[in-house]
Amino acid sequence: MLAGAEPIPERRGDSPDALSDAVLGADRPVVLRGVAAHWPMVSAARGSMEEAVACLRRHARADAPPVVATTGAPEIGGRVFYNETFDGFNFRQENVPLGVVLDTLLKYAAHAAPPMIYVASTSIDTWLPGLRTHNDLDLGGRDALASIWIGNRTRIAAHQDVPNNIACVVAGRRRVTLFPPSQLQNLYIGPLDFNPAGQAISLVDFAAPDLDRFPRFAEAMRHAQVAELEPGDAVFIPSLWWHHMEGLDAFNVLVNYWWRDAPGWMDTPMNVLMYALMTLRDLPAHERAEWQEVFRHYVFEADADTAAHIPEPARRVLSPLDEHRARDLRARLLKRINR
């Protein structure tokens, strides 16, 4: 645990407003103690690892495709990361049946230094149909993607996701460490376009922070929030909050829900960032400043006055966007990019 980290605020998960819009629409994280305690899968996991595995097997689809299993040598200590030269990673991935993963986790459960075994972000409805019938959260009609994460002791480097996230611990214990989006410059983020799991990660080893190499991380630590979650607990992680996830036991299962408080037709802002790197970052400083003003005017501080001087039928992309306008705009952009 990082020295000086504050506890993540908590509330009772069985309270009537635990999953209210006020909680799930907020811009601050919160731990929901016991919000999934009533799940049969949680009860099974509290009994034993074998009971938890049996519960998963009962719901596994017989004809399901293989899952992507991430494995690493015992020497990496469960840390999913780069290799020493940063031209690859310290793990390998293979497609294997889910049942084989569960058998392997059982095999190594009592080992003091087992290989890392990790199945990340796997669709529950595809691989474990029926599981959500009695193991699910009511998120108030939000169109959430439900995924399951299965493994042993793993350390997932701090990263951020565009969607909001509620992560429910089903088996084992998890330690979650959070940082507000404002700590970007103090977390020493690695490559944007080459990373272990699709999201840029902090290069700092949270188990042994090297403050000589990463001195600004000391400031990030002053903003850290941490919690240890038991089976049945969950944490709500708002969009773009940095989160480091650590499985503390020989068998860990987590179910999470991702959703965006935005229309489905909106593209991810990460696409804009990548395109901006190509088109704006290397301009002369005075031109970047001018484009910064353009973006301030049309995007970050846009309001009803931005296009008020243009006749309404002629405002086009300056009008409020909808699915039809977004589709037309996307087609125009693709045509420009590919010309």
- The share of residues in extended strands comes to 15-25%
Distance between the termini: 51 Å
Mean pLDDT: 96
Characterize the overall form: globular
Q: Reading side by side through the largest sheet, how are the strands ordered? A: 2-3-13-10-15-8-7-4-6
Main sheet characteristics = 9 strands, mixed
**Helix share, percent:** 25-40%
CATH class of the largest domain: Mainly Beta
Oligomer: single chain
Report the C-alpha radius of gyration, rounded: 22 Å
Protein name: Cupin-like domain-containing protein
Domain JmjC: 117-274
Pfam families: Cupin_8 (PF13621)
InterPro entries: Cupin_8, JmjC_dom
Keywords, please?
339 residues; alpha+beta; Jelly Rolls
Can I get a quick summary?
With 339 residues, this protein is of the alpha+beta class. It has helices spanning 21-24, 40-47, 49-59, 98-108, 124-127, 217-221, 269-279, 285-300, 323-338; strands at 6-7, 10-12, 30-33, 67-72, 79-80, 92-96, 116-123, 145-151, 155-159, 164-171, 174-179, 225-229, 234-237, 242-247, 252-259.
